[in-house]
Amino acid sequence: MKAPCYQCGEPAVLDGLCAECYDKEHPLIEVKTPLTLHACKKCGSVKIPGGWKKLTIAAADSDDLWPHQLDILLDIEVKPLVRGIELTIEEENRLDRVLHVILKVLGQSHEDLPPHEEQYDVEVRFSYGTCDTCGMKSGGYYEATLQIRADGRRVTDEEEDDIVRIVTEMTIAQYGSNDKAFVTKITSDKYGMNFQMGSDHLCRSIADVLESRYLAQRKQNYKLIGQDKGGKEKYRTTILIRLHRFGIGDFVKVLDKPCQVMAMGKNGLTYFDLAKRQRFTMNPRSSKWRTLEYLTSKDDRREFMITTRVYGQPIQLMDSETFEITEIDESLLDDAIEAGTTVYGLIIDEEFFLLPPE
Ligand SMILES: [Zn+2]
Ligand SMILES: [Zn+2]
To answer: What is the value of pTM for the model shown?
Structure first.
């Protein structure tokens, strides 16, 4: 026979208590009420011990921020007393800055007892301020400047778009873990682009990516701007990324041979040797790289139409602007390419070079 529960007289199952009385003595969670939710009025971040917790980008886009903010707050304020609980939040009522919710908790107060549900009424009071990130941003704070320039030309629109996209993506990626991951100011003029960034670390990591993507030159400068409260010297970094004169599609000389730039990236520069009619990739550390010279812009290529294609005879091409006829060796084009097709070529010192198909 089981001894009776010392609180209610029902048969006891654990520590002299029945299941119900045991559950009451051993709640699943601990939570205070009322709670205060300090949020940033600009970005919705929630103040937590030691700093501010940012909302994920998806949460920040939603109309109602409070469920996301409450998740952050409850993550800190709810102390689970057992393992493996399931928590659901139900909104009871909401008035401007006061919210009443019911927390429903499902779990086992002891592994020998069946799961049960507990309910907690919690009042949440909202208070608003400015988070560190928004404060620094609106104060124009920046640690580093990233400058983008191009050698002997303007930065093209494609390059600008590409660089802005990379800066945006990388800033968003660091935003959750770095309070200074923001861009204070972007300017663009005939010399190029300038990004003022809150974080020196962010600026360096973006420069790393751009440097390898464009095989660009990089220069770094530091300027003493003062001392912090502890008397430590504070520096501001400027990183200059200088793009090559050539871009993709432009013509260069490698080992004094005309080539077209096909691609640039981590693995190096991929180019098409117009005389050998072959693709090569070279690394900026290779000896060939030192022979690299700018030849001419991709705008200097010319459009031609194949006028005659007869087996065993040279192929005739007509310049689409001057209507001049050029003859090329029939082995230069695939058999499948017929008369009427448009091809591109480059003329250097009166010599015709057929360009690779686009
Ligand atoms: Zn009992
Ligand atoms: Zn904020």
So the answer is: 0.76
